[in-house]
């Protein structure tokens, strides 16, 4: 692995509530290298999104430490770009305006913001849609705008929480290929949450499998497939083997949940 970019050590998070506390994460250890693409997978409710939100600075943690480029993460920052499953576009702004908005907030001049926004819309293949409003765009196009916006202010790390989960299968594949191409060109550090094992194997350098709640990193599977990635690879024996390896780790956690349910009956 390359030099550490993100270091998460003994991280814990408990949600307090009137009906009792819920320990979401306990003892999470994860190191992501510079320019590395790492996917988080696991059973539903294992804490994948919670972990990503803590790294984004959108959620607090109760124990442990996390650093980006050696500096503690204490809240949101422009050193991290975030893309969610929901597009979070401002409906009253055009495609160009949505990207400019992030740049202006980052302190860019109006001229620089416009130039950078146009170049990033071109990067995601939306050159001809700068003046369209979100209501005039398909789901895949909206997500392209969200990716362009997150990349526009050049964050040190990109955090993505099920970014393609709401898209149809064909659009999802197109978006995966687009993101893979952008990663190849710009070599970003990416933490990517997904429930789709094929997507995780296709996109990643490593896949981190989380345990059932309280979540921790149960195992990390290196994805030793050549780059650039192509969809022809998904039919190869090596791809199938890696997919089985990840699925077997997740399945073991699912069986443990089922066994616990049986024991409580």
Automatic annotation (TrEMBL):
Q: Specify the ABC transporter domain's residue ranges.
A: 6-237
Question: InterPro entries attached here?
Answer: AAA+_ATPase, ABC_transporter-like_ATP-bd, ABC_transporter-like_CS, ABC_transporter_ATP-bind, P-loop_NTPase
Q: Which GO terms describe its molecular function?
A: ATP binding
Database matches in PROSITE patterns = ABC_TRANSPORTER_1, ABC_TRANSPORTER_2
UniProt-listed SMART domains = AAA
The answer, when asked if ATP-binding is one of the entry's keywords, is yes
Keyword set, alphabetical order: ATP-binding, Nucleotide-binding, Transport
Protein family according to the UniProt entry: Belongs to the ABC transporter superfamily.
Q: Which PANTHER family match?
A: ALIPHATIC SULFONATES IMPORT ATP-BINDING PROTEIN SSUB, TAURINE IMPORT ATP-BINDING PROTEIN-RELATED
Protein name (database record): ABC transporter ATP-binding protein
Q: What species is given as this protein's source?
A: Dongia rigui
């Amino acid at each position: 692995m390359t030099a550490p970019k993100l270091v998460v050590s003994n991280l814990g998070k408990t949600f307090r509530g009137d009906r009792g506390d819920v320990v979401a994460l306990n003892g999470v250890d994860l190191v992501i290298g510079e320019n590395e693409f790492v996917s988080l997978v696991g059973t539903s409710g294992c804490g994948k999104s919670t972990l990503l939100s803590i790294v984004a600075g959108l959620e607090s943690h109760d124990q442990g430490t996390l650093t980006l480029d050696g500096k503690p993460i204490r809240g949101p920052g422009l050193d991290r770009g975030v893309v969610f499953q929901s597009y979070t576009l401002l409906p009253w702004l055009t495609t160009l305006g949505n990207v400019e908005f992030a740049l202006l907030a980052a302190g860019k001049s109006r001229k620089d913001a416009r130039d950078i926004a146009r170049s990033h819309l071109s990067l995601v293949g939306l050159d001809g849609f700068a003046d369209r409003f979100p209501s005039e765009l398909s789901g895949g196009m909206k997500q392209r705008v969200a990716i362009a916006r997150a990349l526009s202010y050049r964050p040190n790390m990109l955090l993505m929480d099920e970014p393609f989960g709401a898209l149809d299968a064909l659009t999802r594949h197109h978006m995966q290929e687009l993101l893979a191409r952008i990663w190849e060109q710009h070599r970003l550090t990416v933490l990517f949450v997904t429930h789709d094992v094929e997507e995780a194997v296709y996109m990643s350098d490593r896949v981190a499998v989380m345990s059932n709640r309280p979540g921790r990193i149960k195992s990390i599977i290196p994805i030793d497939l050549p780059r650039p990635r192509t969809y022809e690879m998904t039919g190869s024996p090596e791809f199938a083997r890696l997919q089985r390896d990840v699925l077997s780790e997740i399945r073991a956690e699912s069986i443990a949940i089922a066994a616990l349910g049986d024991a409580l009956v």
